[in-house]
Amino acid sequence: MDKRFVVSLFITIALITGVKQYIRGSYNNYKIFKYTFQHSLEEKPLYEEYPSEYRDSNHYGPAFALVIAPFALLPDAFGTSLWNIANVLILCMGFYSLPLPLRTRSIIALLCAHEALVALLSFQFNVGLTGLIMLSFSYIISRNETKSAFSIALGSLIKLYGIVGLAFFFFSRNKVKFIISGLISVFVLLILPVFISSPEYVIRSYSDWYISLTEKNMHNVSLTSMQDISFMGIVRRVMQDASIPNLPFLAGGLVLFLLPYTRISQYQFTSFRLMLLASVLIFTVIFSSGSESPTYIIAFAGVSIWFMTQPSQKNKGILSLFLFAFLLTSMSPSDLFPKFIRNEYIRPYSLKALPCVLIWFTIIFQMLITDFKNYKNYAAG
């Protein structure tokens, strides 16, 4: 449970996955990221396909060009591994920023190690984004609104998921400072890409980004897509009806998500706050048609935080639900599951999302009925 061991383990996983995938020539996502910087320098459209350079297309915001720049300038042999290492360092910063005992933070990190491995194999920024969401929470709790606002702005302008950090706004002791810091952060990050391109190019790129995300969302709801591992995806694929819309699920989910905010008297308790963090992390993924297997590092961090903030004497139902999530959500991409089960059942029916959906409804129920003043667990306070 030593922090140095846990961080070293994550760095080792990042290094091994980076080297392995580079040697195999299986780092297409990294190429997309790298060329985002190159295309910005050359003022080429960021969201078109470039078959001679990589497969698929970019879906990250224009500000990402600056984030990937230090890695893109290096040979791929080094850039791939260092990119993964940078992501796990942000993730570990997120884990160890949580208002929990050190041992509990280490356990949460270790529970997420396999899910991080899955994301790192495809060089996903979701690893770093998970850390940024947790940091945005922890900075607000520790009254550092400026850093929280910057974390939210950075995550949002790279990948829209980052905007969920705004869910912690009501925990801020200095809301004016938070709002001003957020506006300044957004403004700075919006204009920074101008220094490697031009104002006209950046404005056009943000417009293209919106169009790209809209088109991607339409593609995601396909019954054969690798995305849509979500609550809606389960229903669509079980019913074999791709025309089932997102809106009813999103509207209902948002209402349930907001209900715990009515319990203002509970805001002061660390356990309630951590429950909300877990809810945010899971909600972000299970109600997104863009969710794919590597996205679940975000949701599983929420699952692990939820589990470790339960009463120390966990009942069988809570334990069973977590084990169900650990097996079906985290371990289903591994060789623990025979290939035919993954290909015939788990992927076609988006079953990786199922335990997270059940846990999210459990979290909402617990947040609505529990008096966290008398909630005895690792996070009680």
Descriptive overview:
α1 (3-24) packs parallel to α6 (113-120), α2 (28-42) crosses α3 and α4 (76-97) packs across α5. The model has no long low-confidence stretch (mean pLDDT 94). This protein is mainly alpha-helical. Helices cover 64% and strands 0% of the residues. It contains 17 helices and no strands. The protein is globular, with a radius of gyration of 20 Å.
Number of helical segments?
17
Q: Please give the largest β-sheet.
A: none
Shape: globular
Query: Could you estimate the helical fraction of the residues in percent?
Result: 55-70%
Mean pLDDT comes to 94
How large a portion of the residues is in β-strands, by DSSP E? under 5%
Give me the strand/helix succession: HHHHHHHHHHHHHHHHH
Q: Write down the Rg.
A: 20 Å
Overall structural class, as computed from helix and strand content, comes to mainly alpha
How many strands?
0
Uncertain stretches: none
How many angstroms separate the termini? 23 Å
Summarize the structure.
With 381 residues, the protein is mostly helical. Helices cover 64% and strands 0% of the residues. α7 (126-141) packs antiparallel against α8 (145-158) and α13 packs antiparallel against α17 (354-369).
